[in-house]
Amino acid sequence: MALDELKSAIPDFAKDLKLNLGSVIGNSELPQQQLWGTVLACAIASRSPKVLRELEPEAKANLSAEAYTAAKSAAAIMAMNNVFYRTRHLLSDPEYGNLRAGLRMNVIGKPGVEKVDFELWSLAVSAINGCGQCLDSHEQVLRKAGVDRETVQEAVKIASVIQAVGVTLDSEDVLAGQ
């Protein structure tokens, strides 16, 4: 199992990450599609080749073809949106917020899966990418759709652990000269 291989690669100094990775994936109360879509989108957003290589096959096995594509789409569109909207928010001139974005984002309206699932994946990727405006926007859509705070937090926990595992493993590779 790829998850076990990934956990075994985590060094002893990051034992908490190893335990958290097993917990957020193995003990998640999210439905399978929400769980594995979040895992896949976050593995992509982590930018860690090792994390993506290990988690993608299991995600693919647990997702329909449509959900697999939608999770990748969430990671892709949020990679763009998080930079754009985070920059708009950080600029001191509020007039940028009045300008038309002019960027295609059609997948958000028609993701090919339940809107709630796509929004959850987008929120998790936005957590990794640090876009407060996107986090607020996706959280509000989820809450208006009846998603509870525990589910939102579950997705953020998955994002935080996957990101931390990627940073840890990739830095260890660099330190080892790989």
From TrEMBL:
<feature type="active site" description="Proton donor">
    <location>
        <position position="131"/>
    </location>
</feature>
<feature type="disulfide bond">
    <location>
        <begin position="131"/>
        <end position="134"/>
    </location>
</feature>
<keyword id="KW-0575">Peroxidase</keyword>
<feature type="domain" description="Carboxymuconolactone decarboxylase-like">
    <location>
        <begin position="94"/>
        <end position="168"/>
    </location>
</feature>
<dbReference type="InterPro" id="IPR003779">
    <property type="entry name" value="CMD-like"/>
</dbReference>
<keyword id="KW-0676">Redox-active center</keyword>
<dbReference type="GO" id="GO:0045454">
    <property type="term" value="P:cell redox homeostasis"/>
</dbReference>
<feature type="active site" description="Cysteine sulfenic acid (-SOH) intermediate">
    <location>
        <position position="134"/>
    </location>
</feature>
<dbReference type="Pfam" id="PF02627">
    <property type="entry name" value="CMD"/>
</dbReference>
<dbReference type="InterPro" id="IPR004674">
    <property type="entry name" value="AhpD"/>
</dbReference>
<dbReference type="GO" id="GO:0032843">
    <property type="term" value="F:hydroperoxide reductase activity"/>
</dbReference>
<keyword id="KW-0049">Antioxidant</keyword>
<keyword id="KW-0560">Oxidoreductase</keyword>
<keyword id="KW-1015">Disulfide bond</keyword>
<dbReference type="InterPro" id="IPR004675">
    <property type="entry name" value="AhpD_core"/>
</dbReference>
<dbReference type="GO" id="GO:0006979">
    <property type="term" value="P:response to oxidative stress"/>
</dbReference>
<comment type="function">
    <text>Antioxidant protein with alkyl hydroperoxidase activity. Required for the reduction of the AhpC active site cysteine residues and for the regeneration of the AhpC enzyme activity.</text>
</comment>
<protein>
    <recommendedName>
        <fullName>Alkyl hydroperoxide reductase AhpD</fullName>
        <ecNumber>1.11.1.28</ecNumber>
    </recommendedName>
</protein>
<comment type="similarity">
    <text>Belongs to the AhpD family.</text>
</comment>
<dbReference type="GO" id="GO:0015036">
    <property type="term" value="F:disulfide oxidoreductase activity"/>
</dbReference>
<dbReference type="InterPro" id="IPR029032">
    <property type="entry name" value="AhpD-like"/>
</dbReference>
<dbReference type="GO" id="GO:0051920">
    <property type="term" value="F:peroxiredoxin activity"/>
</dbReference>
<comment type="subunit">
    <text>Homotrimer.</text>
</comment>
